[in-house]
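Please think about what follows:
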Amino acid sequence: LAATLRDYQLRGLAWLDLMTSLGLGGCLADDMGLGKTITLIALHLKRARTEPTLVVCPASLLGNWQREIARFAPGVPVRRFHGPDRTLDDLDGGFVLTTYGTMRSAAPALAARTWGMVVADEAQHVKNPHSATAKALRTIKTPARVALTGTPVENNLSELWALLDWTTPGLLGPLKSFRARHARAVETGEDEEAAERLARLVRPFLLRRRKSDPGIVPELPPKTETDHPVPLTREQAALYEAVVRESLLAIESAQGMGRRGLVLKLLTSLKQICDHPALYLKEEHARAGWSQI
């Protein structure tokens, strides 16, 4: 590994190595920015399997994974399994990167391969166990499954069940019984000890560190913020002024909830124009006149 891991990353690596060596999976649920990607790259190198590691992630993260592997594990083969020319021929260890959409459509081809490890990055994408994506992911066999996410629970505890039932199948039992025995009591607050019982149950299989945890922040470099003022282009300024003028006329003649709705719509429109005029013009189907600005 062409990097020095921080102490908490070394602890995370040791935990993942232990879990995967025992044939169990794990969910690394550290806060964003704590280095889940580099920890996983280090795990791949430590396991030293001849079979490739499959990483399933959102399309927006393919480039980041490729850059991080090239930076921290130079020489390790990396292949993108994405797009019309994708292929799994002549794999020689290393990493195979794919998206959730591609994985879903190419699940039979991926399931026919032998993988040393399968990683689900931003694993909240499979939080619905009944979705086609989650079902497709379960068909890909491997001795080691690792879920990476900064948000293991977004809406309800069924999402936690979905993640851990993929990394370690059967750990929490069937979803129905998990809801009855643990989730409802925690979510409704009926049983004050229910949350602690569930925490004890999942603690060996889920590792979560926050930036606010003792011993984490001192290891992180100081936060750097840089402001870059960006003036509006001539097109943006003209469109901005036109939208404000028209919207204020409509707001003046409106009342009640309709008036509030117009104000919120105006704010959204102005943000779109500041990002790029095409965002607003496409939404408004390039109203006559404005499309010529």
Q: What stands out?
A: The chain has a mean pLDDT of 88. The domain at 234-292 is CATH 1.20.120.850 (Four Helix Bundle (Hemerythrin (Met), subunit A)). The beta strands are 26-28, 53-57, 78-80, 95-99, 117-121, 145-148, 206-207.
